[in-house]
Amino acid sequence: MAQFPVNTEANDLVNTTIFRIRWIHGSLPRSSKRDPPPQLWRFNSSTMILRQSRDISFEAPFIYLFLGREKALLIDTGATQDRGKFPLRDYVEEELERWLNSNPCRDYSLIVAHTHSHGDHVAGDLQFEGRLGTVVVGKQVGQVLSFFGISGMSGNVGQVDLGGRIIEVIRIPGHHPASVAFYDSQTGFLVTGDTVCPGRLYARDYPAFVDSLNRLVEFAKSRKLSYVLGAHVEMTDIPRKEYPIGARYQLMSTGSR
Ligand SMILES: [Zn+2]
Ligand SMILES: [Zn+2]
User: Fold this and answer.
1) CB-based burial of residue 107 (10 Å sphere; 0-12 exposed, 13-18 middle, 19+ buried)?
2) Is residue 167 part of a domain?
3) Where are the extended beta strands (E) located within 119-163?
4) How much is the average pLDDT of 13-17?
5) Which residues, chain by chain, have CB under 5 Å from ion ligand 1?
């Protein structure tokens, strides 16, 4: 996950505690496993960031939960389907309950969407299938575009209204054909999945990837951004030095994260 303030006009959105969080980072071989299945951090009362434990999957993706007055948006469901091993749904239920206790709403609904459809971002979908008042957005390009109202006419940007909180959705193919980024004006977060994150970037369709990045930069220029937030940490504190692929433990190189 990249954690850097992007432009100074967004200073009012910057919450520097994000730099002080000590994210779970796996366990050394043969040591006892103490990480929670996901670590959950409340950025504020309506915005949560979760990280799946490396003890369960070396992918250890980040997951985002935005709460509006009428709907919640869960962005990605992690790398593990089994609710027993990875109880993502229980964590989400607890947050929804806590939110609804102080912000009551009849027929509150949940949208489960994805930054893209690679397995490490959609495996937990099944935990939400059949949940009352829940839509799990399909994984195909057409399903994603139509759900968020993204068309050529819309300049590759669509949106979803959570009730007093509009999340813009930007089409960014390249890493995956169905890749999208999510922008939340309330926090200034730009959630970029695997397209932009601190680590090796995989471009399956390079021309599309470059075009997507250029459009994302243009989009960002016209919005207040606080943080660009990807879905993985694959780089050590030393720029360009990666953790070994598949590492179950991300040893701190400088102790600063
Ligand atoms: Zn991916
Ligand atoms: Zn990924």
Assistant:
1) exposed
2) yes
3) 134-136, 157-161
4) 71
5) 118, 194
Alpha carbon of 118 to ligand 2 centroid (Å): 6
Q: How many domains does the chain have?
A: 1
**Could you tell me the distance, in angstroms and rounded to a whole number, from the CA of residue 143 to the centre of ligand 1?**
18
CATH classification at residue 67: 3.60.15.10
- 234: phi then psi, degrees, rounded to nearest 5: -125, 0
What domain range includes position 162?
Answer: 8-230
For residue 222, is it within any domain?
A: yes
Residue 230 Cα to ligand 2 midpoint, Å, equals: 9
237 domain residue, yes or no? no
Cα 175 to ligand 1 centre (Å): 6
At 127, is the secondary structure helix, strand, or coil? helix
Report the percentage of the chain scoring pLDDT > 90. 72
Q: 192, 115 in Cβ contact below 8 A? A: yes
* Ligand nearest to the CA of residue 176, numbered in listed order: 1
Q: Is the pTM of this model over 0.70?
A: yes
Spatial distance between the Cα atoms of 171 and 48, rounded to a whole number of angstroms: 23
- pLDDT per residue over 59-117, tens digit each? 999 999 999 999 999 999 999 999 999 999 999 999 999 999 999 999 999 999 999 99
Residue 231 burial (CB count, 10 A): 30
Q: Which residues contact 125 (CB under 8 A, 6 or more apart)?
A: 77, 81, 112, 136
Residue 184 domain-assigned (yes or no): yes
